[in-house]
From TrEMBL:
<dbReference type="InterPro" id="IPR033756">
    <property type="entry name" value="YlxH/NBP35"/>
</dbReference>
<protein>
    <submittedName>
        <fullName>MinD/ParA family protein</fullName>
    </submittedName>
</protein>
<keyword id="KW-0547">Nucleotide-binding</keyword>
<feature type="compositionally biased region" description="Basic and acidic residues">
    <location>
        <begin position="45"/>
        <end position="54"/>
    </location>
</feature>
<keyword id="KW-0067">ATP-binding</keyword>
<dbReference type="GO" id="GO:0016887">
    <property type="term" value="F:ATP hydrolysis activity"/>
</dbReference>
<dbReference type="GO" id="GO:0005829">
    <property type="term" value="C:cytosol"/>
</dbReference>
<dbReference type="InterPro" id="IPR033875">
    <property type="entry name" value="FlhG"/>
</dbReference>
<feature type="region of interest" description="Disordered">
    <location>
        <begin position="300"/>
        <end position="325"/>
    </location>
</feature>
<feature type="region of interest" description="Disordered">
    <location>
        <begin position="1"/>
        <end position="56"/>
    </location>
</feature>
<dbReference type="InterPro" id="IPR027417">
    <property type="entry name" value="P-loop_NTPase"/>
</dbReference>
<dbReference type="Pfam" id="PF10609">
    <property type="entry name" value="ParA"/>
</dbReference>
<dbReference type="GO" id="GO:0051782">
    <property type="term" value="P:negative regulation of cell division"/>
</dbReference>
<dbReference type="GO" id="GO:0005524">
    <property type="term" value="F:ATP binding"/>
</dbReference>
<dbReference type="InterPro" id="IPR050625">
    <property type="entry name" value="ParA/MinD_ATPase"/>
</dbReference>
<dbReference type="GO" id="GO:0009898">
    <property type="term" value="C:cytoplasmic side of plasma membrane"/>
</dbReference>
Length: 325
């Protein structure tokens, strides 16, 4: 049966673990991309059977109540920290309409989720090799149909990951910020949820709102809190205490605190260079915090005094950064 342009579907395959290493080139406009799907096609899309099941690997979703808190930076650098520990990581850019993961990693995919959902590519066709051996499922930018993906297609997307999980130990989802249905659905599918906030009152207020909305859904875990861009450990702890206090009082929910990432000038510098700060500035305070977070994700617990952090680097503070780094 001929396929209609713009038909909303996900192409999956019975083959597993097949990843195409593609020549990195600048993303350009393709014929038919961005066209609106016809009403007839939209009416037919719910008759398509989704893949049988979701991936069986552990899934961690990283989300936030508001944008601009550094969520995607956390995801990309955490993926690299985990990869250095021998974990095979697959990163899903879940912000389908406003992709950023590929930009922060300095890669430019030939195909992305627009081609898998609105086009005729399979999910394994679009997976890219990223830095340090991580793999990336890139999203698109500026495509309204993807930004407003319904729950059915979101479920199809999640299940399609099963076709690329053979060489994967852990799936990291960079979920959209906010309490929209797509963001909540992606987070709800995870085994662990990390809600990122900053010390700004608007940010941790929205983080609480995100936790509140998530707590009203069936979840596999209690959402955990991570404070980014903190000026000190004490400031981060105070932010976490306030969110935990409100969640306990009004939701009767014990919110785990998964730590903090210090405000660090190396982060915006790395963003401009389109490189992960863990690679560009491995001894920076932010990198030290990401290594500590990786320990938490791997279940290694907090480091002891004098105990080296994950990988070849020892946990550092701003005062112990080597000269010239």
């Amino acid at each position: 049966m001929p396929r209609e342009p713009g038909d909303l579907r996900l192409m999956t395959s019975t083959k597993t673990g097949v990843v195409s290493k593609r020549r990195v080139r600048e993303r350009g406009a393709k014929g038919g991309r961005g066209q609106k799907t016809s009403r007839a096609t939209l009416a037919r899309r719910h008759t398509e059977a989704p893949p049988e099941s979701r991936p069986r690997r552990k899934v961690i979703a990283v989300t936030s109540g508001k944008g601009g808190v550094g969520k995607t930076n956390i995801v990309t650098n955490l993926a690299i920290a985990l990869a250095r520990q021998g974990t095979r990581v697959l990163v899903l850019d879940g912000d389908l309409g406003l992709a950023n993961v590929d930009l922060l990693l300095g890669i430019s995919p030939q195909y992305d989720l627009q081609d898998a959902i609105l086009g005729d590519r399979r999910i394994e066709d679009i997976v890219l090799e990223g830095p340090e051996g991580i793999r990336v499922v890139p999203a698109s930018s500026g495509v309204e149909e993807l930004a407003n993906l319904d729950e059915y297609r979101t479920e199809c997307l999640l299940r399609s990951l099963a076709s690329v999980e053979a060489d994967t130990d852990l799936i990291l989802i960079d979920a959209p910020s906010g309490i929209g249905s797509h963001a909540v659905s992606l987070s709800q599918a995870a085994d662990e949820i990390i809600v990122v906030t900053t010390p700004e009152p608007t940010a941790f207020s929205d983080a609480y709102a995100m936790i509140k909305v998530l707590s009203q859904r069936p979840l596999r875990c209690t959402p955990a809190l991570l404070v980014n861009q903190a000026n000190s450990e004490n400031e981060a702890s105070e932010v976490a205490r306030r969110v935990q206090s409100v969640a306990k009082r009004f939701l009767n929910l014990e919110v785990p605190y998964w730590g903090f990432v210090l405000a660090d000038e190396s982060v915006p510098k790395s963003v401009i260079r389109q490189e992960p700060f863990l690679t560009t500035y491995p001894y920076s305070p932010a990198s030290s915090c990401i290594l500590r977070l990786a320990r938490r994700v791997l279940g290694q617990g907090p480091e002891k005094k004098g105990d080296p952090g994950p990988g070849p680097y020892r946990l550092v503070t701003p005062d112990t950064i080597p000269e010239g780094v």
